[in-house]
Amino acid sequence: MLELSHITAGYTPRAPVVRDLSLTVADGEALGLLGPSGCGKSTLARVAALLHRPYAGTVVLAGEPVRGFRFRAPRARRTLVGVVFQQPRLAADPRLTLRALIADPARATGRFTELADRADALADAVGLGGDLLRRRPPEVSDGQLQRACLARALLLRPRLLICDEMTAMLDASTTAALVAVVEDYRREHDAALLAVGHDRVLLNRWCDSVREFPTTP
Amino acid sequence: MGKPEGGDATVETAPGNGTAAPRPAVDRPWHAPGGDGRRTRAVRVAVSGALIGATVLAVLLVPPLFPLDQQAVDLTAKLEPPSWAHPFGTDEVGRDVLLRCVYGMRVSLLVGVVAALVASGIGLAVGCAAGALGGRADRLTMRLVDTFTAVPHLLMGIFIVAMFRPGIWPVIASVGLTHWVSTARIVRAEVLSLRARPFVDAAISGGASRLRVAARHLVPGVLPQAGLAAVLMVPHAIWHESALSFLGLGIPAHEASLGTMINGARGSLVTGEWWPTLFPGLFIVVPTLALAGLAGAWRERINPRRRSELVL
Asked: E strands, A85-177, where?
């Protein structure tokens, strides 16, 4: 599903955050990537989600090499991957209601009428309903917002889901609920998962295999 | 214990209603240091609002009720000091200063509002384009903006007015086309900061196009700032209109405009007739200060984002 080979990426070419890293996520596999904070996990997740162009290395997604990143990636390729970010506050446009937030990818791809029911079903699945969906991000808690962000990431039925420290800011019960939603989705759609985090216990229980992030020299 | 400072006997809390307890009424003068400035702000907004309201009302109601013949002069009544018949006196050719002030204010407000809208529109478009495109396009655009800034804008405004016959539209063009730079800078900076947030990443990952990200996530985010810039621009534009008219380049000399009035009455100032210059001057200063006061209060409302973030 996803093949990263010899990826070097970062924000200044002289001091890349990720150096020469390779990893593979097979179809339907759940891979956990474990590492301390600041080691480049999120940067790698952004590369894998086609949101950040690496300085070197190749990304192969669904059997085809990736040539463009961000807006240069064709829409169909970008939406193959769903991303849930670490901080829901920053990952949600503060002007959208939660309902609009969840349905945003459907509007962006012009499939709103087709996906409206799915958006409602997903909101229900992540445990959001009624009044909450009419509120805006500043009026809900981090956990509720992260639930909406997960629903948004699953809306377009991605074949690979990347969870970048999805549960780092959440309490145990919300973590359990969100992981259950992800697992239900994966069972239903046979989707792959790349879970990035620093919680060894959680990743061991959640993923088929767990890799340590190689420490940069 | 644990009561906020100054929560003394003047505070009456309704029994069984702990959540809606009123702020403790602190006994200190409204201008005292250490106050939270709410009173000051409320007074400023009320006074500014009343002044703006009175000005707008006067400008809307007076012209239909008291028509003014811009060309009529009455040399028998020239330079009369303020009286009941002419509360602001008369000017050097016997025209009523009060009535002409109101007519001049109408021109100034029209120029101010339209020019501010034009300038902010251009600034919003340029700033959004530069910020959203980024990279080389951004650098090129901002260098062009720098070049534009290097020319004094009054000079450029004079150049634009000089190309057309005197009138209100060349004045609007000259102010509007030269004052978009600051708005463009503000908008670009704000767009750049929004663009780096993860919610833009999320939108890209959700299949949004460049245009959609700009229209749905970036532009709405900068509208408060752009609107504030537009309101702050109105007083500035009014001053520019007056300056151009004072220089004889703006509104035709016989038509009432605050700038032409001050220019025409300049000569009589040295002979001691202060009213034909003082009152138009006040008509420029007072409403523009009031407008700036309102805009300042608005800025304080939209900017202390940090305070609400602390609560999170």
From this structure: 160-164
Of the candidates B199, B205, B216, the beta carbon closest to that of A78 is on B205
Supply the DSSP string of A152-209, one letter for each residue: HHHTT--SEEEEESTTTTS-HHHHHHHHHHHHHHHHHHT-EEEEEES-HHHHHHH-SE
- What residues form DSSP beta bridges with A209? A31
Judge whether B233 and B179 are in contact, CB under 8 Å: yes
Look at strands A30-34 and A192-197 and give their pairing.
parallel
Q: Which CATH number fits domain B48-62+88-300: 2.60.120.10, 3.30.450.20, 1.10.3720.10, 1.20.58.1000?
A: 1.10.3720.10
**CA angle B16–B21–B27, rounded 5-degree value:** 135
What's the rounded mean pLDDT across residues A78-85? 92
Q: Are B68 and B100 in contact (CB under 8 A)?
A: yes
pLDDT along chain B (312 residues), means of 10: 42 45 54 59 88 91 83 81 87 87 90 93 93 89 91 88 88 91 91 90 91 89 85 87 86 84 86 88 90 80 50 38
Domain ranges of chain B: 48-62+88-300
Q: Please tell me whether residue B90 adopts helix, strand or coil conformation.
A: strand
For residue B205, which residues of chain A lie inside 8 Å, CB to CB? 49-51, 78-79, 81-83, 105, 153
Q: Can you spell out the DSSP letters for B20-31?
A: TPPPP---S-TT
Minimal-distance CA residue of chain A relative to B133: A71
Residue type, A191: A
- Return the closest-CA partner of residue A78 out of B242, B163, B200: B200
